[in-house]
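Schema walkthrough. Field components (list of strings):
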Amino acid sequence: MKRAIRALSLALASALAMWTPSAHAQDAVKIGVIEPLSGPVAASGNYVRMGAEIARDWINAKGGVLGRKIDLLIEDNKSDPKEAATAAEKLIVRDKVPVIMGAWGSSMTLAAMPKLEEYGVPMVVETSSAATITKRGNPWIFRISPPSEMEALGLEKYLKDFGIKQADFLAVNTDWGRGSVGAFGDLLKRSGASVGAVEYMDQAATDMNAQITKVKAGSADTLFLTTSVEQITLVLKQAQEQRLTRKVITTGGSSSPSQLIKQAGAAAEGSYHILFFLPWFPEAMPDGKLAKAFVDEWAKRGHPFEGLTEGFRGHDGVLTAVEGIRIAGKAEPKAVQAALWNVNVMGLNGPIKFEKDGPAGKESGQSKPSIFIVQVKDGKIALPAFAAKK
Amino acid sequence: MDQLLQHLLNGLLLGATYSLLGIGLTLVFGLMNVVNFAHGEFYTLGAYAAFAALTLSSVNFFLAIPVAIVVGALAGAICERCLLRPMRGQSIDTVMLVMIAVWIAMQNAELLGWGGVAKSVPTPFSTQPLVLGAVSVAPLRVFVFVISGLLILGAHLLLARTKLGRAMRATFQDHETAALMGVSIERIHTITFAFGAGLAAAAGALLGPVFLLYPSMGDLASLKAFSVVILGGLGNFAGAALGGLVLGVAEELGAGYVSSGYRDAVGFLMIVAVLLLRPSGLFARAERVG
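Field assembly_structure (string):
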């Protein structure tokens, strides 16, 4: 019996040794991915992961990079900044990735940033909007998503059409939410409108009735809403319960309007959404063919359509990281960092090309993404009349 | 004035949900002396059970709630039978560690089974609010408020007025004497824990449709439940019910008139004050010592 157990455990051990993914992983070029796959903002993180996987498969189908396949090592930051820092360290120290894409939320990205600097590994930031990310003097950061300031500038040309006189703000109490309130508030003040109530909510909060009651007591005509799709759903539903009649504009591009229509129903009617990818009108995107192919592939994989406005980020992020590796000619962090400055590719959002941002000598890279506005009209997504004209 | 009325109404509705979360926990905590860290997971389980009943087998919405309670109570009974029974007589800390393990295991199982993307539960209630003068409220929330009240009352009556309730109280006051009187101790332990888990599941089934379903939804629920139990006093049913209402109204007024960014801080400041000034809870009656 004892001998049998020994033989069995020996067999098991050798089987395990053979199973270790070393053979595959050594020839593949590893790319680290940090996303919130669980926790309050999990939907968005999972959609970004799905987009990243499509980019991986497309790139591999075309022969990969440097003659090798690429492999994504995906870590869950659990919607928690502490976990984001741990995930970054694990990817760098244990998996020795030459480049990372992440980490969705601004607070999560900001928490991971010191690790990038400590070990010298570049990160392509695919979603985070807080201005501070590229202003802190971290030369390992390359952001393809627009900071809130850039988003506000994108909205500026439509301000007259919106006719905003006074706007309230309701934002998630994170670096993203607070940064967004500052950026859009400045824009309004510049253009002669005033800022009414400024309210915050915890990222995990589910009952926003207090904030809505407070907003309702004011006399503003517009409500800027900055948070994840889960909370936007709840706010819209609770606003309907309290008969709040405001023009709602969501910022940050994470509102997944199709999901809102599904889950908030009539409460989503009339709301405006700032987005960076329009899966309803792929042909209107800067590279219509690429956008169409992505939307089709997404459907073929059975992913939910409402995830596309978030999923494109994963595609563009991985595309950017791989382009950096290709230009560098080797999968080493320092070389990839230098090469990212020369990236010039067409993503789903539009051209990706980095410009310097932040304190001199330690600049981060910031690309200039395209910004779009849509409206929920009769339970469908439409381009607002004024945006269609321009 | 209109604003204050709406805030008070919001606070009461929110508070009723907190009460409902608190009673199951205070029962298990107060009677069994088990710190049930998995309370929020039974809440999540109840929410997903109702969701599954509604969407997979198209059960009526009002039937989905009892289904969820049964699923939650069964899971609680299994948990007690397999994990807590072997731990009987161990220190409260050891049992606490076991419950933390249950919490993590259940939450990850939910993540594995349902995925991380939030789900919304369809209800037969109109989304148009009921308007009462200056204030308005969703019909669904009124329904949840009423059912919460009935559940709290029912649980209280079961514990105070029935033979089973007396056996439960007797078991946890002095289990040897209770056993001598013919009470089946093991069975009472299982029933009590299942009862607490069932109440948590009921809360999940009721609140799931009000909010959204996602695997980590139990964390916030646990946090609020513990707050309510501390406010109301351990094992104090009326205390948990009132504690929930007080916490809900305090958070609401804090967010409305102080700062919404510090909404949760208002609740926790109150708990710190209660712990300093009335450590056995806001509504503790004088206890006989010795």
